[in-house]
Fold this protein.
Amino acid sequence: MNYSEIMALSFLKHEHHGGGGIPADRVKELTTKGFSELEIIDVLRKEGYSPEDIDKSLSLALRGGITSQQPRQMQQQPQKQDGPRLPTLEEIAPKPTEMPQMPETEGGEEYVEQESYPTEEYIEYVVREKMGDNRRSMDEITLKAKELEKRMETLHEQINVLIQTRTSEQTQLLNRIDSFKGVMEDVEIRLGGMEKAFKETLPALIESVRALSDLVQRLKREV
């Protein structure tokens, strides 16, 4: 049994129960009323349907969507007085999805819609933009690194100047200390000379003082 025949049988309506055939509408009716699958099987067995028909009906309900809501046009189709009408294959066959007609070009060739995939030029453009952004970022980083390097060089020069200044000041201080040492040595030499001269002249001075004192005493006695 092919798909068309199965779908055709799914539209059959049974006006009596227990007479054989696939109870598709009965399954739909019970499903609409809220019966579970086990309850539907029990009802169909009591109505005299064979296990094979029940199984086919449930399978069609799962595969063909018998339990879903049918279109109102299908539910309101008029029936002939001589019995249920079988739908034609055109009615039950799935209709292919209609493709929108594409406008034709002047040459009569059909217009083919361009696929929305990125072209090779667009990919190259995106890559160039990304590379340009990366290059600009690298240039900014390089510029900041150079500025930092210049600041480091300036700071290094200032430190060298400070060191040289301190060195010059220290040199001047050492020179002054050396000069002071020279002055102290000269003073010491002079003091030594004065001490020596004083030691040499002191006895003669004492003798002169004594002679002068004796002379004064003698003059006092004579007067």
The radius of gyration is 65 Å. Residues 70 and 97 are 20 Å apart (CA to CA).
